[in-house]
Amino acid sequence: MAAKATMAVTGIVLLSFVLGHMAGNLQVFLGPEAMNSYAEFLHDFGHGLALWVVRAVLLACLVLHVASAAYVVRVSKAARPVGYVMKKDVATDFAARTMWMTGLIVLAFLVYHLLHFTIDPLGAYHDFVDAEGRHDVHRMVVTAFQSLPTVAVYVVAQVLLAIHISHGGSSLFQTLGWRSPRNAKWVDRIGPTLAAVILVGNLFIPLGVFAGLAS
Amino acid sequence: MEQKSMRLTLRVWRQDGPNDAGHVETLQVDGILEDMSFLEMLDKVNQDLIRAGKEPIAFDHDCREGICGTCSLMIDGVAHGPMKGTTACQLHMRHFRDGDTITIEPWRSGAFPVVKDLVVDRSAFDRILQAGGYVSVNTGAAPDAHTLPVPKPDADAAFDAAACIGCGACVASCPNGSAMLFVAAKVSHLARLPQGQPERRKRVLDMVAQMDAEGFGACSNHYECEAVCPKEISARVIAEMNRDYLESRLCSGS
Ligand code: HEM
Ligand code: FES
């Protein structure tokens, strides 16, 4: 049960990050100045220390979330060694039943996404510098999302992330003991609502750029 | 009024003993009346099997009035069958139609090993109760009933949780084979009452530890349990136990 609480708390941290990350990157539609100065601000805040602290916290949360997920899924699979010939689910939904699959694919996407923009091992965007000598994040994003296959990867990943959050965003309230018959109606809408907001916001970035709204 | 007699096809799990692999047996049964309970239907089928010199189907039952929690059948993929808030013994054949095929299986959980056919061993629940499902009371003269005031909302909530009959449908229906609804019903029932306070923290930690040791799965908040619970215990008890557990873990520093 401690593992479930760990998943819920780290889930909240990851969710907050996803929301902030979405808001930050929607600035690509405000033009190069807004985007690049925002990126520079993140890099230089607290003499560059803040960025690494946040990265460390996020990485720790991700590792804890995935490790707890692996433990929880293993325990639950082991709990029913012989399955049913016929089993009908009467209350649960697709999102709840596929948490580990959507989670794993999101994890794979995270690795790809970090390699794509943050680590950039092939140096595809290393010489993108704007007039003020800053890393030209705006041009990087706009260039990346001209490619249809890249856009497709991002779209699929965001749909899966949204499915994950539609269950997780509500489930965490029950895990931490905050859901009750009085608020259940609302709590059960938080996950799907968060998922919808994140889906629309995050899809708008690759699709909007592809449609030429950011250049 | 003359009742129509039904013909049914039963697909029943047959397993000779704990070490037998088991299989699904298909039986054609006749002469089922709609006023029969599901268990009376099985009684009739067994009578016919015995007359034919065959081994009757082993299934668990006791009170047959929905209060003991002994009956435990997975009927067409739903614990206790299709009627909400109803134990298998209180389910009647009028909810089925002539010509139906009904699949009957035992509860499936590693912690509930099959004893024979549809009978499983639920002593894991007894061990969880022994780990903390009790309160300490003074022996001797019974205290005056009015000495311990219980607020009405708490009394009601405790009573709702206490309605749990320990049948195990929550475990059987949970995609993760989790026993959280059962354990939480006991924890919440006692945590809501003044008599439950002295052992409150120890109780939740010990009962959860025993639950985990028995090999039940983790709760993913699917809410299948509350949907099939014959006593309609609300998953609110799980949230209450989660909070109690986390507070107890953090406060006792373990
Ligand atoms: C940005 C990424 C992610 C976010 C925002 C997120 C968020 C959440 C939240 C809020 C929960 C609900 C916790 C609860 O029920 O109390 C959850 C559950 C879960 N997460 Fe994630 N998660 C993310 C990534 C991942 C990854 C990479 C995995 C990898 C396998 C994963 C696997 C799971 C699983 C299996 C569960 C369900 C556990 C259960 O209820 O049994 N998640 N997630
Ligand atoms: S036999 Fe007692 S509840 Fe069904």
Explain the overall architecture.
The complex is a heterodimer of chains A (215) and B (254). Chain A is built from 8 helices and no strands. Chain A is an all-alpha fold and 215 residues long. Chain A is elongated. With 254 residues, chain B is an alpha+beta fold. In chain B, a hairpin with a 2-residue loop joins strand 6 and strand 7. The radius of gyration of chain B is 21 Å and the shape is elongated. The mean pLDDT of chain B is 95. Chains A and B meet through helix 1, helix 3 and helix 7 of A and helix 7 and helix 8 of B. Bound molecules: protoporphyrin IX containing FE (HEM) and FE2/S2 (inorganic) cluster (FES). Protoporphyrin IX containing FE (HEM) sits at the interface of chains A and B. Protoporphyrin IX containing FE sits at the interface of chains A and B.
Secondary structure elements and their pairing?
The complex is a heterodimer of chains A (215) and B (254).
Chain A: H1 2-25, H2 32-44, H3 49-78, H4 94-97, H5 99-119, H6 137-144, H7 148-175, H8 184-210
Helix pairs in contact in A: 1-3, 1-7, 1-8, 5-7, 7-8
Chain B: E1 5-14, E2 23-33, H1 38-51, E3 74-75, E4 78-79, E5 101-105, E6 114-116, E7 119-120, H2 123-130, H3 152-162, H4 169-173, H5 180-191, H6 200-213, H7 224-228, H8 236-252
Parallel strand pairs in B: 1-5
Antiparallel strand pairs in B: 1-2, 3-4, 3-5, 6-7
Helix pairs in contact in B: 2-6, 3-5, 5-6, 5-8, 6-8
The structure holds protoporphyrin IX containing FE and FE2/S2 (inorganic) cluster (FES).
FE2/S2 (inorganic) cluster binds next to loops of chain B.
